[in-house]
Amino acid sequence: MTEKWMQLSEISPHHTTPAMRQYLQAKMESADTLLFFRMGDFYELFFEDALEAASLLNLALTSRDGAEKERRIPMCGVPVRAVDSYLAKLVRLGRSVSICEQMENPKDVKGIVKRQVVRTVTPGTVLEPELLEDGQNNFLAALCANGEEAAAAFADMTTGEFLTVCVSEASGTLFDEIARLTPAEILLPDENQEGLWSEVKKRFPDTALARRPSDEFDPAYGKETLLQYYRLKTLQGLGELALSGPALGCAGAVISYLRETQREGIPQLGLPRHQRPSAYVALDTNTQRNLELTATMHDKSKRGSLLGVLDKTLTGMGERKLRHWILHPLAELEPLKERLDGVNEFFDEITLRLSLREALKGMPDLERLLGRITASAGNARDVKSMGTTLSLLPEILRIAESFQSPLLQDLQSALDPLEDIAYLIETAIADEPPLTLNEGGLIREGYHEELDRLRDLVRGGVNWIAKLQQAERDRTGIAKLKVGYNRVFGYYIEVSRGQAHQVPDDYQRKQTLANAERYITPALKKHEEEILTAQEKMQDLEYEIFITVRNQVAAASERIRKTADALASLDLISSLAEVAATHNYCRPELDLSGEIHIRDGRHPVVEDLNKQGEFVPNDTRLGENGSRMLIMTGPNMAGKSTYLRQVALICLMAQMGSYVPASQARIGLVDRIFTRVGASDNLVRGESTFMVEMIETAAILNSAGENSLLVLDEIGRGTSTYDGISIAWSVAEYIHDTIKARTLFATHYHELTELGDKLEHARNISVAVRDWHDSIVFLYRVVDGGADHSYGIQVAKLAGLPGQVLKRAHKILESLEAGGPATGATESGAQQMFLFAPVEETGPGPLEKELEEVDVDSLTPREAQAFLYHLKHLSNRPRSGT
Ligand code: ADP
Ligand code: MG
Which residues lie across from 64 on neighbouring strands? Predict the structure, then answer.
């Protein structure tokens, strides 16, 4: 920081202005945030805040006097009218902002106005629609662990959803739960959780983190907080949550944070729902990413993901629920059958589906509106919008009368007609209310007697002025005399300069213009006061009435939320039926057989994006007749990865209660889906591809069970051929003999087909290709039996490798296949390929040397890992001299 700027810590409260003292006070109450300090039409930032904001927001930095003449206080400001866009930018950058408002009208006070921090906006507590994605929740999360259990609470202030989850700490699955819900901000205790902090930082580098006092995570404190917040006598109604200490602690920490950041406007969350991890199919973070469930791997876009194909929802709340269903497939039969019956009903009853979707089209986001209204941030347009939404309910209820399936009937009974609230809003709120709350125009005529009386008075006032103008013209004989109004002088009588001599004695001159004079009279002033007070009273009263109405709406939040949730489900279920109908999906049969039988399965996304080329459907039989492992071989680009993912996605879709892209499917439920998919380097995290691959494989081998579905694509690809084959081989054996999970195993090493023959419950399959004029054609048809060779050179040809290189590769391949050395095909003996050259010929390489020298016992685990990286680096460098 430059010398000339004064820092916050340097200023002494005793030697400064009263406004600066207010600032220091506000700053104290809002540590770690940027303080927006209201001064008239601007929010000003000072000191370090100003320097940071000026650079983040591209604002001009100015300054004001410090205590010492030569050092100045840096300052910058944003206009109050434009504050939202600046807030948006900062919050997107992960910064939090505290807003300090003027609590009095400067006109009404002598001296300094009262100021107060009214709200802190953080990434997890924004309410501004422009900061939120319609179809995505904005969760604030709190995490903690106690050595045995790890827990998390997630609250979406914008919709009122509140979830908790608790897992055993050793399982490490808490992070998978976090990845499913992708919170915008994570709270962690400030003591004794360094490990957790650094792990979270590493895994979620883009998420805002905040340290909170450990006391706020205390289970007893959490219990108290919940009892008080929900005005409950006991937590028994909350089920398992009441029994989990860490989960209670996290729930309490979330509410404390909302209290602190929202101050007066603390939102009303729904009761927390405790998620039982065993109720859902476990999806680790990699699987969520590899299967591209809600975003593609390469650009994180929704288009190209499963969500992109399945989302035909019509409302933001429907889309949010769809996301939740995709990321939380169910592990139990009963609720799945109910969901499928629901989808089935909309699938068969086309008119029912279309009329419901017609009614939902364009419906505002009831949950988000409610969120703003209960957090006292809703303006009159929000309330009006809610009214509009509620007025659509009778039509939806009418449609819902014909629902047959149990799930749809449940949803029907969850729909509250909310007639009282609809009526209240309809009668109370004006048709097109303004965004501001203190300039009137909010309340409909005829709703409030006193308000109507004041309105008449003000309107009468306008009449009175017209009358006065006429009377004064008659009295003075000045035909062009006018009565007008301006903000500085109030009402006045204006007479042109030429006629000024004709004015009566009771006219008092107030202002002289270029060619007119303005006067006031006592009668005019008296009436002016009456009108102005009436006007002010009217605005105050309107505001008061509006707040009362808004509170009445907020008081019905439980009913409204239940209805909104049912609407979201109806939107989602009908949307799944719509997708099934347009894409020709079938209803899957679900059981506990441990088998997977798919006829004419397709990859939902590839088929959708690949419009011109026909997608070739394929069958899958897994777990049937005891063959629970499929070893899939075939050249690169043949369609192996697509097939593997297709099977995993069909299982996942079936277990979210959706129809699936196949002509027939019978799915024995899975409890976990694990995927380990090709070289998805995580260079950002500084781990080598192979290391990542092995870490992920280890995690799978350590936690998969008999009912899991494993998808292993190109295991061992990240290392040399023989290493790769050996690792792939032993992993397959281990899964086959010990884990016994249903497994799809793809590899371009055709050597592994031997496994399919050798292992009792494994079977070889391959993707058919046709040799054609020394080239290959991909048929995308999955057939029994292994691939006989790798076709690597043919694929290289398709990729456009120069003919000379291809010819040479053919020669080397022939020699290798004949059991000879690669060098046997060498045209000039001097060119040797180091890969196949025996080590003895060249003496110990740098790798061997380093290995010889290191004393393994003296290394710390960290050093050992660093050493491995070092070796890895050496082995990647081309060797010289060979
Ligand atoms: P591999 O994993 O064997 O290298 P991929 O699964 O990545 O091959 O498939 C390569 C390309 O082939 C895909 O991008 C896709 O466009 C196409 N493809 C895969 N399966 C099919 C299919 N069943 N029908 C049509 N095209 C397919
Ligand atoms: Mg592949």
Answer: 73
**CA-CA distances (angstroms) from residue 16 to 6, 31, 671?**
13, 21, 65
DSSP, collapsed to helix, strand or coil, labels residue 829 as coil
Residue nearest to atom 6 of ligand 1 (CA): 639
pLDDT averaged over 10-residue windows placed end to end, the chain, 882 residues: 74 81 91 92 94 92 75 90 89 91 84 90 88 91 91 94 90 87 94 85 91 94 94 86 88 95 87 89 90 91 95 96 97 96 98 96 92 90 94 95 97 96 96 86 92 84 80 90 83 89 88 90 84 86 95 95 96 98 97 96 92 87 88 88 96 98 97 79 52 81 91 78 84 93 88 88 90 79 81 75 81 75 48 39 67 76 80 66 38
How many angstroms separate the alpha carbon of residue 639 from the centre of ligand 1?
3
**Counting atoms of ligand 1 from 1, which one is nearest the CA of 638?**
3
Q: What gap in Å lies between CA 574 and CA 311, rounded to an integer?
A: 11
Q: Which residues line ligand 1 (CB under 6 A)?
A: 606, 610, 613, 615-616, 634, 636-642, 780
Taking the centre of ligand 1 as the mean of its atom positions, its distance from the CA of residue 776, in whole angstroms, is: 14
Question: What is the distance in A from the centroid of ligand 1 to the CA of 589?
Answer: 27
Residue 76 tokens read as 């910058």
User: In angstroms, what is the C-alpha Rg of the chain?
Assistant: 36
Alpha carbon distance 650, 297 (integer Å): 19
Output the residue whose Cα is nearest ligand 1's atom 19: 639
* Ligand 2 center to 292 CA (angstroms): 15
